[in-house]
Amino acid sequence: MQLRYSFRVYPNFAQQAALARAFGCARVVFNDAVRAREDARAARQPFPKIGELSRKLITEAKQTVERAWLGEVSAVVLQQSLRDAENAYRNFFGSLKGTRKGPKLGAPRFKSRKDGRQSIRFTVNARWSITDSGRLSLPKIGAVKVKWSRKLPVTPSSVTVIKDAAGRYFASFVIDTDRAAADQARMPDTDHTIGIDLGLTHFAVLSDGTKIDSPRFLRRAEKKLKKAQRGLSRKQKGSKNRAKARVKVARAHAKVADARREFHHQLSTKLISENQGIAVEDLSVAGLARTRLAKSVHDAGWASFLSMLEYKAERYGRVLVKVGRFEPTSQTCSTCGIKDGPKPLNVREWTCTACGTVHDRDTNAAINVKRAAGLAVSACGAPVRPEPHLAQREETGSHGLPTGNRAA
């Protein structure tokens, strides 16, 4: 499987200027490719092939006065920008035809130099390298200082240099790993399984009764964010002070996002390392983000956390089971199995009318999530589970907010 390793890089002033030129040239080639495609569509002509675009927009354009500066950057960067435009159109048409999974995508749009994220990609053909002193040598840019937080397991196949809205630079490497030989050896099999109930009162409640508090990174940083945003709004448009204030706002938001991402990584790695099987609810995060709980849902970052669990489970040989969102996990007694009906979100503890068991709402839901997934472990430690069954459509789901059980 392919993994991505990102490291912070610190280019000097000359290298920052060279990177700015590379970002600009890649952006111009991408926009020229989109414009050529749109002109062909307006004229009802076939879309030009990537070979034709490469000849016209790169090779021949370098010979003109208007585009002579394209020769100041690596040709691989320009070719990769063309491939990005090609992939953008391929994904767009695949989304229209329904052959591409995921949300619907729109047609490619022109890039702007004011975009918060700028990037260029170098493949093996670009002859980039990592020097003996640990610097990243990039063609026509130089040897850039890198903050190595960990070792690369194998030689990367490509590197992408990124500048974010906060003005930080990153080098992102694509790694092809042998999961069976390398990754699974780091995490031996275990006989533990767990069910997880995600919520807002607590970020996650486990079926063994463990409750993990929600850090609420955005809520805690609101005062600082408001102050920075207020300072930005008072600056004159187009001034240097406004540009400085914009970077200050971006850095404040980046700090919140980084803290949330680090929390997700630590928790997901801990759960994956300690459990052979993990059961979670298949939440409709997009639906929950359209309710009065939207700010808290975005602050929790459930979608990012679930995606981390998913790829780490695949990487380390674990089993991740997603329980249908219509499963009545908060309505069913985990002791006797009787469905006790829907309950509003303010009810955090309830007593079963059939067996009299007093339940903590979240712990009971986590136990039911694990039971609905059918997780079990055989004597040899291999995870097994019964065939999945269809959830009842009449059960309360995430579309029934705010009285449903999805945001509990």
Provide a brief overview of the structure.
The two termini are 35 Å apart. The protein is 39% helix and 18% strand. The chain is built from eleven helices and 16 strands.
Topology pattern, helix = H, strand = E: EHHHEEEEEEHEEEHHHEHHHEEEHEE
Structure classification: alpha+beta
Strand portion, in percent?
15-25%
**Uncertain regions spanning at least 5 consecutive residues:** 377-408
Report the span from N to C terminus.
35 Å
Compute the number of strand runs. 16
- Overall mean confidence score, pLDDT: 86
Describe the structure.
The chain is α+β, with helices and mostly antiparallel strands. Helix content is 39%, strand content 18%. It has helices at residues 13-42, 50-59, 75-97, 179-186, 217-220, 222-233, 240-274, 285-288, 294-300, 302-315, 361-373; strands at residues 2-10, 118-123, 129-130, 136-138, 142-147, 158-163, 169-176, 193-198, 202-206, 211-213, 277-281, 319-323, 349-351, 358-360, 376-377, 383-384. A hairpin with a 4-residue loop joins β9 and β10.
Descriptors:
seven-stranded antiparallel β-sheet; 11 helices; 408 residues; five-stranded mixed β-sheet; 16 strands; alpha+beta; disordered C terminus; single chain
